[in-house]
Amino acid sequence: MMIAQNEMAKSSTIWLLYLLLGWSYGSLGKVGLQILFYLTLGGFGVWALIRLFTLSGAIKDYNKKIAIRYRLTTEEMLQMGLI
């Protein structure tokens, strides 16, 4: 469980990076999408606005995928707030 927690995205760090630098997709393993985000200036602001509402869910989904990869039990995922 400790190894999985080390790989999981820290919500506060990703939010801070997003608000200051617009960096969120890259932190969640989608560097190509992050480059596209920058090239379109956050979808001319529309994409950036939508990301404000979807970022928390994206972080949770990313962390859940890591938990599944490490075969954490449902109880462990519940303790971590992933379910």
Describe the protein.
- This protein is mostly helical and 83 residues long.
- The protein has one domain (2-79).
- The protein is built from six helices and no strands.
- It has helices at 2-7, 11-21, 31-39, 41-44, 46-69, 74-79.
- It is elongated and about 40 Å long.
- The relative contact order is 0.16.
SSE topology:
Layout: H1 2-7, H2 11-21, H3 31-39, H4 41-44, H5 46-69, H6 74-79
Task: Summarize the entry for a quick read.
The chain has 83 residues and is an all-alpha fold. The chain has helices spanning 2-7, 11-21, 31-39, 41-44, 46-69, 74-79.
Spell out the key features of this protein.
83 residues, mainly alpha
Q: Strand share of the residues?
A: under 5%
Parts with pLDDT < 50 across at least 5 consecutive residues? none
What is the 3D form?
elongated
Q: Topology as H/E string?
A: HHHHHH
- Report the C-alpha radius of gyration, rounded: 14 Å
N-to-C terminal Cα separation, in Å? 16 Å
